[in-house]
């Protein structure tokens, strides 16, 4: 097993375990066991848990954001597409809320590298929402971000598509009032 394979296996195990059970609840020994990566190789690839948590969040951010951007890219109603995508995500059987807010909730302003990834993820989501709102309506991004985040938190407590649908209706009303939102 080379370092690239070990990294992939470790990140796969970390993502599954951290998202399902929490970062603090899962130790490095559990990650090692689940990944099948020898302890020496684990610490060669990720010298500390903070490095593993940061890499997990970076990888999740890249995938999550790319999936959302893909769903919105060609939509006639890009903001509506955001909330449709969220409804599908909230309906997944393993949905446990936002991994980034979960990490922040567990670690607070703890490890700076982790906090940096969380902040960058939220800034990128805000940028995506500004693009979806359309030219001249970028200022709606903060309000749309609050609707997305609120729906995500509500869905974490009560999984299913309804929080996204309700937030999507609020977003549509906001956009209609501003004369924005469709291409």
Explained architecture:
This protein folds into two domains: 1-47, Arc Repressor Mutant, subunit A; 50-178, Tetracycline Repressor, domain 2. The chain is built from nine helices and no strands. The chain has helices at 3-21, 28-35, 39-45, 49-73, 78-90, 99-107, 112-133, 141-157, 162-178. Helix 4 (49-73) crosses helix 5 (78-90) and helix 6 runs antiparallel to helix 7. It is elongated, with a radius of gyration of 18 Å. The mean pLDDT is 94.
Radius of gyration: 18 Å
What do the pLDDT scores average to?
94
Number of domains: 2
CATH architecture of the largest domain: Orthogonal Bundle
Please count the helical segments.
9
Tell me the distance between the termini: 49 Å
CATH topology of the largest domain: Tetracycline Repressor, domain 2
Described by the principal axes of the CA atoms, the overall outline is elongated
The total count of strands amounts to 0
**Name given to the CATH homologous superfamily of the largest domain:** Tetracycline Repressor, domain 2
- Following the backbone from N to C, one meets helices and strands in this order, namely HHHHHHHHH
Low-confidence stretches: none
So what's the CATH class of the largest domain? Mainly Alpha
Which class best fits the helix and strand makeup?
mainly alpha
Share of helix, binned = over 70%
Strand portion: under 5%
Largest sheet: none
């Amino acid at each position: 097993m080379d370092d690239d394979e070990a990294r992939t296996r470790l990140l796969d195990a970390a993502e599954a375990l951290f998202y399902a059970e929490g970062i603090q609840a899962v130790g490095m020994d559990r990650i090692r066991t689940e990944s099948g990566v020898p302890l020496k190789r684990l610490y060669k690839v990720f010298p500390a848990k903070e490095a593993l948590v940061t890499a997990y969040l970076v990888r999740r951010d890249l995938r999550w954001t790319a999936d959302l951007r893909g769903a919105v890219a060609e939509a006639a109603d890009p903001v509506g597409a955001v909330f449709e995508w969220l409804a599908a995500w909230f309906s997944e059987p393993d949905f446990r809320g936002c991994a980034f807010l979960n990490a922040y909730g567990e670690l607070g302003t703890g490890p700076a590298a982790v906090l940096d990834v969380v902040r960058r993820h939220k800034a990128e989501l805000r940028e995506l929402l500004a693009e979806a709102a359309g030219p001249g309506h970028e200022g709606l991004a903060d309000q749309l971000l609050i609707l997305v985040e609120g729906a995500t938190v509500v869905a974490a407590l009560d999984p299913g598509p309804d929080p996204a649908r309700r937030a999507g209706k609020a977003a549509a009303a906001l956009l209609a009032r501003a004369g924005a939102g469709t291409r």
